[in-house]
Amino acid sequence: MRTIQxxxxxxxxxxxxxxxxxxxPPSEVQLFDxxxxxxxxxxxxxxxxxxxxxxxxxxxxxxxxxSVGYHxxxxxxxxxxxxxxxxxxxxxxxxxxxxDVDVHRLIQMEKQxxxxxxxxxAFVRFRKVERDDKEYFIxxxxxxxxxxxxxxxxxxxxxxxxxWAILTPDETVTWDQRxxxxxxxxxxxxxPGFDELEDLWRTYYANIFNxxxxxxxxxKSEMPVxxxxxxxxxxxxxxxxxxxxxxxxxxxxxxxxxxxxxxxxIKQTEIESCTLAxxxxxxxxxxxxxxxxxxxxxVFGTGPVEAKVVLLGEQPGDQEDIKGTPFxxxxxxxxxxxxxxxxxxxSELYLTNVVKHFKHVKTNNEDVPNxxxxxxxxxxxxxxxxxxxxxxxxxxCLNDAEFLVCLGETAAKAILGPGNKVSxxxxxxxxxxxxxxxxxxxxxxxxxxxxxxxxxxEKMRELIxxxxxxxx
Length: 472
Hints:
Elements: E1 2-6, H1 9-21, E2 29-33, H2 59-68, H3 76-89, H4 101-123, E3 127-131, E4 134-140, H5 148-158, E5 164-167, E6 171-175, E7 180-184, H6 197-208, H7 216-222, H8 225-228, H9 237-254, H10 276-283, H11 291-294, E8 309-313, H12 318-323, H13 330-341, E9 350-353, E10 360-364, E11 372-376, H14 381-397, E12 403-407, H15 409-416, H16 422-425, E13 429-430, E14 438-441, H17 444-449, H18 453-471
Parallel strand pairs: 1-2, 4-5, 8-9, 8-12, 12-14
Antiparallel strand pairs: 3-4, 5-6, 6-7, 10-11, 13-14
Helix pairs in contact: 2-4, 13-18
C-alpha cells in the first residue's frame, strides 16, 4: 500500500497524474493531508516520472475536484483519485451518472464548500485596530471547510484599499493592498474585541430588518446561530423579533412597501366584459413596479382563449422583451421541444408569465452589438405580488382551462404559496385555488443552467413527462 501526502489541489493533481501513469489503482494507495509532519505509515517510494500520464479530463471534473479539495473530509483526495481512475480507465462519462455513489458524494461536497464560501463572504465582520498611526482591519471566522484560499481573492477585490487580515483556526490571510499572504491558523483570543464599527453594523441591520418577512427557522438556516457570537448585529435580533408584530401593523397602517399593484391599472368598470386583447392593452400601460423602466415592453400572454392547458413561467427573457412574446428565446426553444415530445401543440396552449417585464442587469460584453449584455435577475416577492393581478385577470378569461402547469419555482410559489420547491412537488397533480389540476415542473431555463449533461437530460425527461400529464 502506497501512502502519499497531499498539500493542496495542485499537489493532488500532479501526484494523481503520476499515479495514473504508474497504473496504481485506488485500492493500492492512501492519500493524506500534508500537515507538515511525517506520515505515520512511512514514506512511499517515488513514482516513476517517465510514466507521467498525458491524458485529458473535462473542465467540469477539474472544477469539481478543485472545489472538493477545500472540503474538510479527510478522505476527499482518495475519493477524487478513485473518480479520476474510473473516468480514465472505466467510465469516461462518469460525471453524468448522478446516481453513482462517488459522483453523488462529490456533488454534495462541492455544494457544501460553495455554501460555506457564501457564508464566509456574508458573515465576516472586520474590526478596526490602530497601530503606528495606521488603520488595520481584522476579522475572526470559523468556516466549516478549508476555504480561506478560495474566498480570500474576493475580499482582496472588495476591500482593495484596506489593510486587513482574516483569522481562522485553519489558516490566516492578510492583505497589504498589494498581495495576499497566508499563514498558520490561530485561536479566537488572537482576534480583536469591540470597536466603533460594531454600532454601525447594528444600525445597518436594524434598518434593513423587515418584520413582515420574518421566518425564524429560515433566518437561522441562512444565518446559523453558531455565527452569531461573531456578528455584532446578533445582539439586537431578539429585540427586533419581539418588536416585529407591532412593526408589521405599523407598516400596514402606513402602506409601507404596499404602493401600487397591477390591480390599479385594470379598469374595474370593464373587467366583466374584458377580453385577453383588452387586458393586453391595459398591461402595456402598467408602471406598478420599477421593472417597466428598463424593459422594452410588457410581455403579455399568448394563446387561444379556449386553451385547455395554461403554462405559467417566471418572467420574459432578453429575446422575449425584444419581441414582445413569451418563450421565444433559448428557454423557449427547449420548451418547444418538450411540448412536441409530450404530444402537445403549442398553438393550442396559453403561455404566460407571473411577471410581465424583464428584470435584468447590464454588463459589458464585446461579443454583442452594443457592447452590453442583459443578464436575467430573479424577480423578488414584491415584484411578483405587484404583477400577479395580471395573471388573475388572464385566468378569469380562460374559461376552458383544465390544467395549469407552473414552470419553475417562482410560478410554483405564486400559485401554491411560499416554501414550495420544484423538486419537492413536481410531477403530481395538485388542487389549488386556481385549478383543480395544477402541475409543477422544471422551467426550461433551469435545464439550460444545469452544469452536467446527464442532469440536463434527466430534467428534460421530467419536463416532458409532466407536460404529458396535461396532454393526457
